[in-house]
Design a protein that fits this description.
Layout: H1 10-34, H2 44-63, E1 66-67, E2 74-75, H3 82-96, H4 99-115, H5 123-140, H6 149-163, H7 170-191, H8 193-198, H9 203-220, E3 236-238, E4 244-246, E5 273-280, H10 288-298, E6 299-306, E7 311-318, H11 321-329, E8 333-341, H12 344-350, E9 360-366, H13 369-377, E10 381-384, H14 391-400, E11 405-409, H15 416-426, E12 432-435, H16 441-449, H17 457-469, E13 472-478, E14 483-485, E15 488-490, E16 495-499, E17 502-507, H18 510-522, E18 528-533, H19 539-552, E19 557-562, E20 570-574
Helix pairs in contact: 1-2, 1-3, 1-9, 2-3, 2-4, 3-4, 4-5, 4-9, 5-6, 6-7, 6-9, 7-9, 10-11, 14-15, 16-17, 18-19
Domain DhaL: 11-217
Organism: Speluncibacter jeojiensis
Pfam family, one: FakA-like_C
Amino acid sequence: MVDVPLALDGPVLRSWVRDCVDAFECCRDEINELNVFPVADSDTGTNLCHTIRSAAEAVETLYAPRPDASSRDEVSRPAPSTAEVATALATGAVAGARGNSGVILSQVLRGIAAASGGGDLDAKALTVALGRALELVNQAVSTPVEGTIISVLRAASGTAEQVRDSADGLGVFVRAVAESAAAALERTPHQLAVLGESGAVDAGGRGLLVLLDCLVEVVTGARPARPVFRRRSAVEAPGRSGQPITTLSLARADEAGREMRPEEHCAAGVEDYEVMYLLDLPGDASGVPVLRERLEQLGNSVVIVGDGDGGWSVHVHCEDAGAAVEAGLELGRPRRIRITNFGLEEQARERGALPRLEGRAVLAVVTGVEAAELFAGEGAEVLLCDGPPGPADLLNAIVRTRVGEVVVLPNGVVPAEDLVAVGAAARDHGQQVHLLPCGSMVQGLASLAVHDPHRAITDDAYTMAEAAAGTRAATLRIAEERALTWAGTCEPGDALGMIGGEILVVEKRPEQAAQTLIDLMLGTGGELVTILTGSGASESLADSLTEHVRRNHPATELMLYPGGQGDDILQIGVE
């Protein structure tokens, strides 16, 4: 019979991290093989091994004998407390973290350290630890993506909340958390198209499951039996009818949307370098948002995490490794700098697997024929659709540009998860995709107005994103049902004015609603009002708005264009 502890103390945490080192070594090749996102460089298992080994070494320093100041002999140290062991775990993991997943895993250990202040860790304290870890990860990762280690962590934290008050003991608790993580890991190929295409579960999520399974073993004496996770040729998910639906492959599509043959597929990343370093920041952490913004301009996969004691671990994928290091140097003292050249793209080009594409294009996703003509007239490539386009449609539109750099204006039509997946898939065509945060077509027009193909792509994309962010956007729609809004109760047929997704105007007449909406937006200033009229807008509505702006806001310029969009009677932008 195994003596199940009621809580985790320092020695149990020490045993746990030792078991984790052995388990990660055993699973390293398996996890490396699963590594396809965000860059298929097959090193996630190796990175996780390094991260957890660094955490274990930090714990061992607490137990190592220390020299006696009065002699050459070494004396034993007092047994470290639970909080000291947990803090060493976190500090060592952050300092030694490698790769995206290693950095995120270090935050799980930091969550445990944060929850250990009250002593040994029982089910309630571990629930707090997982919740805190999820908070830290969401703060650290610039663009959280479903179907990754974050999804697995969220599932584990949610289950912990549900079972923490169970009277069945710590063993039942940790088993339930691990099983929930395993189920979430199995779902990852159906959440992220890149994984579905490869038939792989998320490599980082697999690593988190190893960590939790080792916790089950140290508490109960038996590690859960898991299958060896390998890539499969296809991944299927059940549809509403219960029948399987094969996940769409975004690996390589030609202009007709046909999948290329497997031997023609070669994963490649535009980002040439993975840059990681530790950063000591003087004073508070106020400089971290500045560093994050700068790194997001340089590349992607930006993760910045702290150890809770003034030390920070910085991670980014980018083309200019020197600029990434200099960004940290402006704020503090970078050390233990590690730069890895992926080299995948150049290798693929040398084999002839990727074309060497030149030039830049802006691709706008629009609804409405007139809006499509407007964007095309401003020099953009256009993907016209009645609703959210499928991932394959967007990928093929990017491929058809036949240029190396594509700036995508989603204009509020494309789901964020599709943007991430398609952007990754486009790399296999030798194309670098920059996704701008345009939530409406009026914001897309504002960004397109400052586009300059002669600037460096990072500068051009930043300037365009800044123009989109500086354009306040609103929409006018007709209510389809009775509902309670911030502006009161609306009835079917009422005109609804929305700013930032919130309904702030409810009127019987569209003309009155539109005028009130414009007055609200100009109440905080504005020099230019741009309006796209939808297919449901009447000529009298356009005329009344022109007269309203001329009479009530004479210093404001009005640009009014037919858009032809179906959902919104009006899209309004104020700059």
